[in-house]
Design goal:
The complex is a heterodimer of chains A (298) and B (310). Chain A is mostly helical. Chain A is built from 15 helices and no strands. Chain B has helices spanning 3-14, 26-53, 70-77, 82-111, 116-131, 137-142, 150-157, 171-184, 189-200, 203-211, 217-228, 230-245, 248-255, 267-277, 281-306, and strands at 56-57, 65-66. The chains are: A mainly alpha (298), B mainly alpha (310).
Chain lengths: 298, 310
C-alpha cells in the first residue's frame, strides 16, 4: 500500500517535470474558456428542461419567459398519470414495454456479442477473419441507414408488430461485437486460456468461467450502449398496435398537445433521462477502460 | 508421477497447445452462430437485397419487374427531389462531420489535462446530451415557433426581431438548427473513445518528448498525441460518419416530415418517403445503394487519410 502511494507520488512529480516545459498559462486559460463555452452549450438545454419541468403554468406562459423558476411546483409531475390516462392504453403498459425491451436487448446483446467476440478474438481461420472484416465494414451502417431494406426483411419474417422487431435487430449491433473483441484481444492473456485448455477445460467453460469475468468492463460498456439505444427506441412503421409501443412514443403524444403542456413534456423527458444517466454513472470507469482498446486498423 | 501429469508433459514436449488456432473448431462456430445468423439476416441480406431490388420495379404487392438501370436513371433524370437531398446530405456530412470529429477529439484532449476527478465529471457533462437519447425534444421547446419559445422571446425582448420566427418551418433556419442539434448530440461513443485513448497514451513518450526539445503542447499534440491515437481516431471517424449520415431522426422530429420546401430533406428521409409513403421499393433500394456507396467512399478516404501504412 505504502509502496503504491510512493509510486503515485513519483508519477505526479514526473508529470510536473515535463508539464513545466510544455504548459503555458495563456493556453491553460484558453482551454478553460473553450471548455466553459462548449460545456454551457452542452449542459444548458438539459438544465433548462429540468428547470422547466418545475415551472407552474403561469411561469410557463410568462412573457418574456424566464430561464429559472421562481415558484417551483411538482404539478407537472403529479399531473402526468392523469394526462397519460387519456392515451389509448394505460401508462403502465408503455412503461412495461420499454423496460421489457430494454432488459431483453441488453442481456441478449451482451451474451450474443460476447460469444461472437470470443470466436473472433481466438480463431484465426480465414472464414472468421472475413466475418470480422465484414463487422468492421458494417460499423458504418445502423438501423436508420438500413431502414427500408430491413423493413422488407421484417415483413418477410412476419415479425412486424411484435416484440421481435425491436429485439432481434438490436442484438446484432456490430459496435458491441467490435468493442468486445478488441477488449478481449488485449485483456485476456492467451497463456491463461492455454493453461486452462491443458487442464482439460472445454471452450465453453473457458468462455463462461474465465473470459467473461475478465472482460467485465467490456460487457458493462456494451450494456450501457445497448440499454441507452433500447430505452430511446421509437418504432417507425414497424409497430401498429398501441399496446406494443414504448415510453418515448407516449411522450410524443403528450408533446403533441402544445405549449400549455410543455411543463409535463419536460417532466416526462426528465423521467426518461434518469435511467441511462444512472447506468452510465455506475459503469463509467469500466466504459473508459473498454474504450481505450477501441482502436481500429484499416 | 501420475499418468495425467505424464501425459501433460508429453503434450508439452510434442506440440504446444495454442489457443490462436487456424482450425475452425466446432465450439468456435457454435458460439459465433447466433450473432452471425442475426448479422446475415438483418445487415448483410438487407444490403444484398437492396442491390438486387434496385434493378426491379417493386411495389410490395405485385411481383417485381426487371427494369435494368431504370431506377438509377430515374435518380439523375426524373427525380427533382434527389439533387437537393444529396446536396443536404453532403452539406450535413461536410459541415457537422468534420466539426463533430474535431470537437470530439479536441474537447477530449483539453479535458485530459485535468486530474482524474474533474476529468470524469467533465466527460459526463459533455457526454450527457448523447446519453439521454431523446434529449433533442428540449430544442423543440427552446426554438418553439411562437413568442413563448425561449429563443424567440429572448430575441424579441432584446429588440432584434419584432415577430416570432417559426424556426423549424422556415427553410432559412431549419437546416442550421438541425445542424446545431446534431452537433449538440455528437459527443457520443467517439468522444468516450478519445477520452479513454488519450488517458492511455504512454506518459514516458511525453517525458521523452520534453527531453527531446518539445516546448509547447501544440507540438506535443502533433508529434506525440495524434500519432499514438491513430487507430482510435479511425474508429471515432467511422462512428461520426455513421451518425452524420443517419441524421434523419433529428431532422424529422424537429422539422416535420416532409420538411417545408424539403429544406432538411436528406437522402435518408427521401428513402423513407419513397419507400413508406409511395411504396416504390425498387427505387428506394436504388437510393439506399447510392447512400451505401457514398458512405463506403467516405470511409475509404478516411482510412487512407488516417492510417499511413509503415
Amino acid at each position: 500500500m505504502k509502496e503504491k502511494q510512493k509510486k503515485v507520488k513519483l508519477v505526479a512529480h514526473k508529470k510536473k517535470q515535463y508539464k513545466r516545459f510544455t504548459r503555458s498559462k495563456a493556453a491553460n486559460f484558453m482551454f478553460v474558456t473553450i471548455l466553459l463555452v462548449f460545456g454551457l452549450f452542452m449542459v444548458l438545454p438539459l438544465i433548462y428542461s429540468v428547470v422547466t419541468s418545475f415551472k407552474p403554468l403561469d411561469e410557463l406562459l410568462a412573457f418574456p419567459p424566464k430561464f429559472f423558476v421562481t415558484r417551483p411546483t411538482l404539478y407537472n409531475y403529479t399531473v402526468l398519470p392523469s394526462l397519460l390516462d387519456n392515451l389509448q392504453v394505460p401508462f403502465s403498459r408503455y412503461a412495461f414495454n420499454s423496460i421489457f425491451i430494454s432488459v431483453a436487448i441488453t442481456v441478449g446483446h451482451v451474451i450474443v456479442a460476447g460469444m461472437a467476440a470470443f470466436t473472433l478474438s481466438n480463431c484465426k481461420h480465414k472464414f472468421i477473419s472475413t466475418v470480422f472484416w465484414a463487422v468492421q465494414v458494417a460499423l458504418l451502417f445502423n438501423g436508420y441507414t438500413l431502414g427500408i431494406p430491413q423493413y422488407l426483411i421484417f415483413s418477410k419474417l412476419g415479425i412486424i408488430d411484435t416484440y421481435w422487431v425491436y429485439i432481434l435487430p438490436a442484438l446484432q449491433s456490430t459496435t458491441g461485437v467490435f468493442l468486445m473483441k478488441q477488449y478481449m484481444d488485449v485483456s485476456v492473456p492467451k497463456a491463461l486460456m492455454e493453461a486452462a485448455l491443458l487442464d482439460g477445460a472445454g471452450y465453453y467453460r473457458i468462455f463462461w468461467t474465465l473470459v467473461m469475468p475478465l472482460v467485465k468492463p467490456a460487457w458493462l460498456t456494451l450494456s450501457l450502449f445497448a440499454f441507452r439505444d433500447a430505452w430511446a427506441i421509437q418504432p417507425s412503421g414497424t409497430i401498429f398496435s398501441e399496446n406494443l409501443k414504448t415510453l418515448p412514443v407516449a411522450m410524443n403524444q403528450i408533446a403533441a398537445s402544445g405549449i400549455a403542456r410543455s411543463g409535463s413534456v419536460m417532466a416526462a423527458t426528465v423521467i426518461l433521462m434518469i435511467p441511462p444517466i444512472l447506468v452510465y454513472l455506475v459503469s463509467q470507469s469500466n466504459v473508459m477502460e473498454t474504450m481505450s482498446s477501441a482502436g481500429m486498423k484499416d | 508421477m501420475s499418468t495425467l501429469q505424464a501425459e501433460r508433459a508429453k503434450t508439452f514436449g510434442k506440440k504446444r497447445i495454442s489457443f490462436a488456432q487456424d482450425a475452425l473448431r466446432a465450439p468456435f462456430v457454435v458460439m459465433l452462430l447466433p450473432f452471425l445468423l442475426l448479422f446475415v439476416v438483418f445487415t448483410l441480406i438487407p444490403i444484398g437485397a437492396s442491390v438486387v431490388l434496385s434493378f426491379f420495379d417493386y411495389d410490395v404487392v405485385n411481383t417485381p419487374q426487371w427494369v435494368g438501370l431504370g431506377n438509377y436513371l430515374k435518380m439523375f433524370v426524373n427525380d427533382y427531389e434527389f439533387g437537393p437531398a444529396v446536396g443536404n446530405t453532403l452539406k450535413f456530412a461536410l459541415v457537422t462531420g468534420p466539426i463533430s470529429f474535431a470537437l470530439a477529439f479536441l474537447l477530449a484532449w483539453m479535458i485530459n489535462e485535468f486530474g482524474p476527478k474533474t476529468r470524469s465529471l467533465l466527460s459526463f457533462l459533455f457526454y450527457s446530451p448523447a446519453l439521454v437519447g431523446n434529449g433533442y425534444f428540449i430544442w423543440q421547446i427552446m426554438f418553439s415557433g411562437d413568442s413563448y419559445g425561449y429563443v424567440n422571446s429572448l430575441l424579441i425582448s432584446m429588440g432584434i426581431i419584432t415577430d416570432p420566427i417559426v424556426w423549424f418551418r422556415d427553410p432559412n433556419y431549419a437546416f442550421t438548427i438541425v445542424m446545431i442539434v446534431q452537433l449538440w448530440m455528437s459527443m457520443g461513443i467517439s468522444f468516450l473513445a478519445n477520452i479513454a485513448g488519450l488517458n492511455n497514451v504512454d506518459e514516458a513518450m511525453y517525458e521523452a518528448g520534453a527531453i527531446d526539445g518539445i516546448r509547447n503542447r501544440w507540438a506535443e499534440l502533433w508529434y506525440i498525441t495524434v500519432p499514438s491515437m491513430k487507430s482510435i481516431l479511425l474508429f471515432s471517424a467511422v462512428m461520426q460518419v455513421q451518425s452524420t449520415f443517419s441524421i434523419s431522426a433529428v431532422a424529422t422530429t424537429l422539422t416535420g416530415f416532409p420538411s417545408v420546401n424539403h429544406s432538411t430533406e436528406t437522402i435518408l428521409t427521401h428513402i423513407t418517403d419513397v419507400g413508406t409513403v409511395r411504396f416504390d421499393m425498387g427505387y428506394a433500394s436504388a437510393l439506399s445503394v447510392f447512400l451505401f456507396a457514398l458512405m463506403m467512399i467516405v470511409r475509404l478516404v478516411l482510412g487512407r487519410l488516417l492510417i499511413t501504412k509503415d
